[in-house]
Write a structure and sequence with these properties.
Mean pLDDT: 97
Largest sheet: 3 strands, mixed
CATH topology: L-arginine/glycine Amidinotransferase, Chain A
CATH superfamily: Succinylarginine dihydrolase
Bound molecules: N~2~-(3-carboxypropanoyl)-L-arginine
Number of domains: 1
Structural class: alpha/beta
Distance between the termini: 28 Å
Low-confidence stretches: none
Number of strands: 17
Radius of gyration: 20 Å
CATH architecture: 5-stranded Propeller
Strand order of the largest sheet: 2-1-17
Shape: globular
Helix content: 25-40%
Length: about 425
């Protein structure tokens, strides 16, 4: 079994509209000018880095934005331009939602239970409804179409549509899989938020993953009772800005890399884990050393923890974690200590980080056998040559900058559409296939 990371390519409409309540980076950069071309190149740079480390790499495509069809559901009518113009004039916030490139954060695209864990021995993927945030709730239809195409072979994969919107589901960002190796039947840990929390300045931090949604996914995927557990997120973590659990913890095979305050009842989580996975290694950042606030500002735990071909593990960290000396010093101690984490790799994904999306947010993990790997639609799998082709399209077609007032410009609407169409063309997708 190998784990493939499917990264979301940053779309041409990437901008800072401050749409995500409870996401401190998104709120504090609201109104700034974005750099979509640089953002997409940074994301592609991370994908190339994974390839260079000898890891397989997949790609999910940006969604069609601005989404005039979604605005039609809200009563706007006429041609696409007429719909977008009317939305901009009558309710610009709606156009901002229809413009978001948020599908880049593919950790939120779906929850994935690999074949060893499920009752029917297939890999199950459940598309997330992302219903807590208006702009993210737009994504699931196109995500479903894309995943059904990529994982079409029903011998190996089952792709489920999103849950009903009343059950907030944020996909793999609130999910961890721990076992002796990718190939072993593992413990799937679903982390949910119990209720919205108030911050110290009175701000509201919604709990985006509901317990009932996690339980529904475990049922759908056919997980045995002993092979999954539902655990509440620490309220203090939510109130400090951990709007998804993957901002404060990440797992890979037998290693849990976590902040001390990630979970409501940490002792219980560790006990369950140790009982189910005797070889589990828990690497915990003590709050006295790394405050929650520092962890969330640097996205230290939103790193990718991956197994390298030689068997060692590497942390793929954001530049922001490198720049905070307290964080870096602790990480050097982690690497020197007796645990499987043996290497630190730093990537620059600053444009995504400014909207609260670090290295781990930008990827969806799918662990597959050799046969299942071969059954994935190859247009969603990357090699250096495909990266070169994608890079040329980004350099030619992606807007350099988007300022808040640009969202009302027809030229930008057309440019975003044609940039995406050029990408699909280069990757061999027919118009309307996605
Ligand atoms: O849902 N940001 C995303 C970031 C998602 C991060 N994903 C994980 N942690 N896995 C979100 O809050 C900002 C959009 C804006 O403000 O325009 C945004 O949607």
């Amino acid at each position: 079994m190998r784990e493939i990371n499917f990264d979301g390519l940053v779309g041409p409409s990437h901008n800072y509209a401050g749409l995500s309540l409870g996401n401190i980076a998104s709120a504090s950069n609201a109104g700034a000018t974005s750099a979509p071309r640089m953002a997409a190149l940074q994301g592609l740079g991370k994908m190339r880095r994974m390839l260079a480390l000898g890891l397989p790499q997949g790609l999910l495509l940006p969604q069609d934005r601005p989404d005039a069809d979604w605005l039609r559901k809200l009563g706007f009518s006429g041609s696409d331009d007429a719909v977008l113009r009317a939305a901009w004039e009558q309710d610009p916030a709606l156009l901002r939602n229809a413009f978001s490139a948020s599908s880049m954060w593919t950790a939120n695209a779906a929850t994935v239970s690999p074949a060893p864990d499920t009752a029917d021995g297939r890999c199950h993927l459940s598309v997330a409804n992302l219903s807590t945030m208006l702009h993210r709730g737009i994504e699931h239809d196109q995500t479903f179409r894309q995943l059904r195409l990529a994982f079409a072979d029903a011998r190996f994969f089952a792709v489920h549509p999103a849950l009903p919107p009343g059950l907030g589901d944020e996909g793999a960002a609130n999910f961890m899989r721990l076992g002796e190796s990718h190939a072993e039947r593992s413990l799937e840990v679903f982390v949910y938020g119990e209720r919205a929390v108030q911050g110290s300045a009175g701000q509201v931090f919604p709990a985006r993953q509901h317990r009932a949604a996690s339980a529904a996914i475990a049922r759908r995927h056919g997980l045995a009772a002993a092979d999954h557990t539902l655990v509440p997120q620490g309220e203090i973590a939510i109130a400090t800005g951990a709007f998804h659990n993957d901002v404060v913890a990440v797992a890979n095979e037998n290693v849990l890399f976590t902040h001390e305050q990630a979970f409501a009842d940490r002792d219980l989580v560790y006990r369950v884990l140790r009982r189910r996975v005797p070889g589990a290694v828990i690497v915990e950042a003590p709050a006295a050393r790394i405050s929650l606030d520092l962890a969330i500002r640097t996205y230290l735990f939103n790193s990718q923890l991956v197994t390298l071909p030689g068997g060692d593990m590497a942390l793929i960290l954001p530049q922001e974690a490198r720049e905070a000396s307290a964080v870096w010093e602790w990480l050097e101690e982690v690497v020197a200590a007796d645990n499987p984490i043996g290497r630190l790799e730093v990537v620059d994904v600053r444009e995504s980080m400014r909207n609260g999306g670090g290295p781990a947010c930008l990827r969806l993990r799918v662990a597959v056998s050799r046969e299942a790997h071969a059954a994935i639609d190859p247009r969603f799998l990357l090699d250096e040559r495909a990266c070169d082709r994608i890079e040329a399209v980004i350099a030619r077609e992606w807007p350099e900058n988007i300022a808040p007032e640009d969202l009302g410009e027809p030229d930008l609407w057309h440019r975003c559409r044609s940039a995406r169409a050029a990408l699909l063309d280069v990757l061999g997708f027919a118009a309307g296939e996605l």
